[in-house]
Amino acid sequence: xAAKAKNxxxxxxxxxxxxxxxxxxxxxxxxxxxxxxxVLTGTEIKSIRQGKVSIVDGFARIENHELYLYGxxxxxxxxxxxxxxxxxxVRKLLIHRQELRRLIGxxxxxxxxLIPLKLYFSKAWVKxxxxxxxGKKLYDKRDAIKxxxxxxxxxxxxxxxx
Length: 162
Known about the structure:
Elements: E1 16-20, H1 22-27, E2 28-38, H2 42-49, E3 53-54, E4 59-63, E5 66-70, E6 73-74, E7 91-94, H3 97-109, E8 113-122, E9 125-135, H4 138-160
Antiparallel strand pairs: 1-8, 2-7, 2-9, 3-6, 4-5, 5-7, 8-9
C-alpha cells in the first residue's frame, strides 16, 4: 500500500508573504485590518508567484455593494499569450456581507480609507490584508520619523556597550 502525500502547509503554518505596502504605514494610521480574498486570472497568479506585483498605489472602493481593488499592478506574464491580463485592471475583493456593511458605514461616516497592506498566500489562495486607515498629517509623519531614529540610536548605543 502506497503512503499518501502529506499536505506541506499545516493549519497553523505561517503565511507566505508576497509583498508589503510599507508606504501605507508611513502615510496612514491603520485603525484595523481584515483579510479578503481576491479574484484573479491564471496569468495573474503565475505572475504573482514570480513576485511581479505592486500594491503601493492601491486602494479599495465599495461600489454596488461589492468591494474592488484599484491601482494595484500585476505585471504581464512573460510566457502568456493573447489571453494575458491587463496590468492595472480593477480586481474584485471577496468579503463577507456583514463585514462589507460595517465597512460601508465606517468609510462614509468617518471618512476612512481602505488601503491594501499586504498580499500573501494562504494555502493555495492569494489573500489581501486590507487596512481601515485614516490619513496622517505632516507633523504625525515627522513624529514617527523622530521616534524611529531615536529608537535606532538607543539600539546602537546599547549594542556598542555590550
